[in-house]
Specification:
18 helices, alpha/beta, five-stranded parallel sheet, globular, Oxidized Rhodanese, domain 1, 2 domains, Rossmann fold, 358 residues
Length: 358
């Protein structure tokens, strides 16, 4: 049975139904990978280094011989691991998709083995390197983004969830980044991905959302270029700043109540550490006052100070948009009810679409 080579798009589609085996080293996989791929390394990190050194300093043939020494004892284990993954994918499942760094010797060796055993094998043409080139090209595309904006505490993420419940396409950047975007955004969250992995997840999610309709509206939150420790791809962020911005203007007191309930459940120590991280920007007096509020159990007073700080910085970033009057759709809303605010946004979007077609 011949091994079938696939383009990146074909490989991603296939990966929804068959196991995707990443045969790169554990270190390569940990840094960044194709979302959904399973690590099944041909070499561990030390073995990979030894093979690479032999290739550069001796010869290709010597590197292959060393690689075979490592590969031979692992053959049965790799076959059995692939069988187990096949069983988990469904009865009689005997198809696998494989990739390495460049689609060369590592994936070729594993593909040969599994094909010999009887698997239907698919290889990613050009390997992970080709995938990364594809990822970066996605950010050159002009997707039909619509942004949900608003000051901190407006419940924008919940609005996005309600839009998704209505069948709208949603790119949840904060969900992908494992961070809510402020100094408090990483509390009670898993570690963030690397910036490279963040890009990989964004690109594959955009592919999934628009595969059937490249002009489909994609809702996303109006974000800073940096989300926690990871950066949005610059070209994508620049695209965002050109797109319609549906700004839900929630009264201060309602937003204060929202973030007090959301973040106030954390311990004083955790909250104080978050405040200390922004003390240079917050200022000495506001830092001292907000920390003292926490120590005196005045959580609401603490977040009132912080909310005014974030409002000032959001407004500054908003006004830095050179085209703000042409993209911003201001929406006065009563509170943080995500369903009501979602309905307000959709109504404004339909009215805007109707105006554009008049």
């Amino acid at each position: 049975m011949a091994v079938t080579r696939l383009t990146v798009a074909e490989f991603l589609r296939l990966g929804r139904s068959v196991p995707v085996l990443d045969v790169r080293s554990p270190g390569e996989f940990a840094h960044a990978r194709i979302p959904g791929a399973i690590s099944m390394p041909l070499f561990n990190d030390e073995e990979r280094a030894a093979v690479g050194t032999a290739y550069k300093q001796v010869s290709r043939q010597e590197a292959i011989k060393i690689g075979l020494d490592y590969f031979g004892p692992k053959m049965r284990t790799m076959v059995e691991q692939a069988e187990q993954l096949g069983r988990e994918s469904g009865p009689g499942h005997q198809s696998v998709a494989i990739h390495c760094w460049r689609g060369g010797m590592r994936s070729g060796a594993v593909a040969w083995l599994l094909d010999l055993y009887g698997f239907e094998v698919y290889l990613l043409e050009g390997g992970y390197k080709a995938f990364r080139n594809w990822v970066l090209r996605q950010f050159e595309e002009d997707f039909n983004f619509h942004l949900v904006g608003g000051y901190t505490g407006s419940g924008k993420t919940e609005v996005l969830y309600r839009l998704r419940d209505q069948g709208e396409a949603v790119l949840d950047l904060e969900g992908l980044a494992n961070h809510k975007g402020s100094a408090f955004g990483g509390l009670d969250r898993a570690p963030q991905p690397s910036s490279e992995q963040f890009e990989n997840m964004i690109a594959t999610e955009l592919f999934r959302l628009t595969e059937d309709d490249r002009n489909r509206v994609i809702w996303a939150e109006d974000e800073s270029q940096r989300i926690g420790l990871v950066n949005m791809p610059m070209k994508l962020w620049e695209r965002f700043r050109e797109k319609p911005l549906f700004f839900i203007d929630v009264p201060f007191e309602q937003r204060l109540e929202y973030i007090t309930q959301d973040y106030g459940k954390n311990s004083k120590e955790v909250l104080i550490n978050a405040i200390i991280r922004i003390q240079k920007r917050l200022g000495g007096l506001e830092t001292k006052t907000s920390v003292n509020c926490l120590l005196e159990d005045d959580v609401r007073g603490c977040f009132s100070i912080l909310l005014k700080y974030y409002d000032k910085h959001y407004m500054k970033a908003l006004n830095n948009r050179p085209n703000l009057p042409s993209v911003m759709i201001p929406l006065q809303v009563a509170g943080t009810d995500p369903v009501a605010n979602m309905q307000t946004i959709l109504k404004a979007k339909h009215e805007r679409t109707a105006d554009l077609h008049r």
